[in-house]
Amino acid sequence: MNLKTGILLSLILLLGHTIQGQDCNLSIRGKIIHLENNEPIEAAYIWVSEAEEGAVSDQNGNFTIKNLCSGTYSLSIQFLAHKTISDTVTLQSSSFSKTYRMEEEAVGLQGIEVHGHRDAVQTTTAVSALYGESLLESRGENLGESLKRISGVSTFSTGNSIAKPVIHGMHSNRIMIMNNGIRLEGQQWGAEHAPEIDPFLADEITVVKGAETVRYGPEAMGGVILVNPAPLPTNKFSKTSLNLIGATNGGMGNINLVHVGGAEKVKGLGYRIQGSAKRSGTIKSPGYFQDNTGVSELNLSSSLGYSSSKLGVEAYYSLFHSELGILNDSHTGNLSDLENIIENGRPFSDGEFTYDILNPKQRVTHQLAKLKSHYHISESWKVNFQYGFQLNHRQEFDKRRGDLNEKASLDLELFTNTLDLYVNHTHKNELSGTWGVNLIQQANSNVPGTGVTPLIPNYDMVNVGMYAMEKYSKGPLEVEAGVRYDFRNVNTARYIDNELRTADLDYQNFSAFLGGLYHISPDLTFNSNLGSAWRPPNVNELFSEGLHHGAAAVEIGNADLNSEKSLKWINELQYDGNKTHLEFTAYLNPIQDYIFLNPTGETYVSLRGTFNVYEYLQANAFFYGFDFAGSYEFTDKISGYLKGSIVQAKNTEDDSYFPFIPSNRMDWGLSYNFAKDIDPKTNKITISNVLVAKQNREPDFDIAPAPPAYALFNLAYTKQVNIGENKMNLGLQVQNVFNTEYKDYMNRFRYFTYDMGRNVLLKINYEF
């Protein structure tokens, strides 16, 4: 072998060894979000020129480019109406991950729908949302019933017309509802005080299941519900949506009309006008009508907003008005009548259908006005201002003699002012955060002239909260922490037996949280959040004294109640594959000084009837449980879903159980899509089954034992058709197909009646 040949062979062997030893199993992973609000960007395009490989970000903003060798690469990220990002990435012995924040830039494109901004839900705790097709299917239902489509969420109801959401066993003043960014403030402390909100407002309803007191304040210790309309358009745009809904049970009719527009001459100016009306009559259980269960509802809202590259301003107003009957048979004349109907389990008469709403009934009017503005100090800093005013007028009417029958027995006016001032900072590096101050001023008045001693006193409340939250994002990892301090003062006054009784109470506390989210792979995400929370006792829990007409019960408060304090640890694992979606949530939630309304077993007899007596008590509690939800596409035509929840709540002081904790439940369904490949519009039928177990974890005493388990079958058909350039969605739903007779443990009227029987609904949604 000559020298040249030897050198050549040596170079070949050396090159082969180098190639063999080079690591080509490396990857570039990243997350793409908006610079302004950290909201994930879906469908951004990522290109690596040297490898001639590309990727598209998913709905969470994540992307991965695999099988890269060590070396230096040029990365380009593009998304419509955003500045292109160019980056140089060096891969050596490990893969690369980074979070990219894209900045908007003005573009002039015809036929593109451009909307203003809506702040993203910034949290590392478990979040579920109702939107798109699922939200469309829920139209015509109240907020509580709509949210039962989300695992871990159930309802605490008073009859079939009034339902309030329950998250992981928590409800009422432990769940905060945000109406277009404003915390909803009404007389929400009673089981029959349904949220004063029109679900037709929402383009998306989001449920945050963790303790969120740092972000939103003390009343968010059990979770938060965000009811958000779509962002207003910022260019020439016009769309009108019409919803028509009819139901056989109760003869319900529901209409909703929304018009959204953007100005042609004033760039950035948009508006929305929305209105809905609902009317239903007597609800029917299998075999009989539930007397006096009609509903009348009228809602209006309007928005006007302006948005530019630096400044955003929005004004909003909504009016919610409802009148609904309270089941006649829940108001009995004497003790023997009360005992007999509870023993019978249903009204003695079969009733008849009518649209009339008589006493006992409740009438609620809620008005909300909001002014919001933000200003970009720089590309990284934004200052936000929001003011909200709310007036809630609640009247409850009882059966009374003569002219008194026209007067409300409970007449409350609640005035609330909220002021939020906060700054957001988002940078092109890994840090972002929010610092702010929140002020709430509230005044509650009993309107005189009822002739009845008020159930709760007049009161004034002031709450000041200061908070700071910081978030670190790098590639697949997000870590978030926050702290908050609240101070609350409550002054109360009322006359009882011509004696003035007053109280001046102060509450204060810190709350904090630490959470993290990690994208194990593009399909698999794990998040964990540990948050402390607290809630001062509400005025009704402290000072209730008398008949609560809507609940048909006497409630007794306890002035010595302490603030609730809790620590909630929640973990969620979520998988999103091509055909499979899975999510599993588990939580632990010890609560010190948990406040609950407990039946005493006593009855109160008056000229207006005989009523069960409840009292507010306090004990240490331990809540824990899990939710699960999943869906799978078996074929192009057939898909299925499964979801369920288990809630356990124990009184750790005497090893007993609390009343009104949801029992275990599961919901499954199968769908068949008739649509062809050439006709991809919705055209499917779904059969589903709801299974609810008997609540075996009962308190030591209850007025009646927990009802047995039940199973309900439901049927739904949805079809989308095109009418010219417009589209129409048609829906036919049959609830409780077999007209099953059942009672739900979480219905306070289960002592007197069965729940609703079969109900057939026709739904039409037309956009033009």
UniProtKB/TrEMBL annotation:
Residues 121-224 form the TonB-dependent receptor plug domain. It is a multi-pass membrane protein. The keyword Signal applies. SUPFAM superfamilies: Carboxypeptidase regulatory domain-like, Porins. GO terms for molecular function: siderophore uptake transmembrane transporter activity. Keywords: Cell outer membrane, Membrane, Receptor, Signal, TonB box, Transmembrane, Transmembrane beta strand, Transport. One of its GO terms (cellular component) is cell outer membrane. It is found in: Cell outer membrane. Residues 348-737 form the TonB-dependent receptor-like beta-barrel domain. GO terms for biological process: siderophore transmembrane transport. Belongs to the TonB-dependent receptor family. This is Iron complex outermembrane receptor protein. It comes from Algoriphagus yeomjeoni.
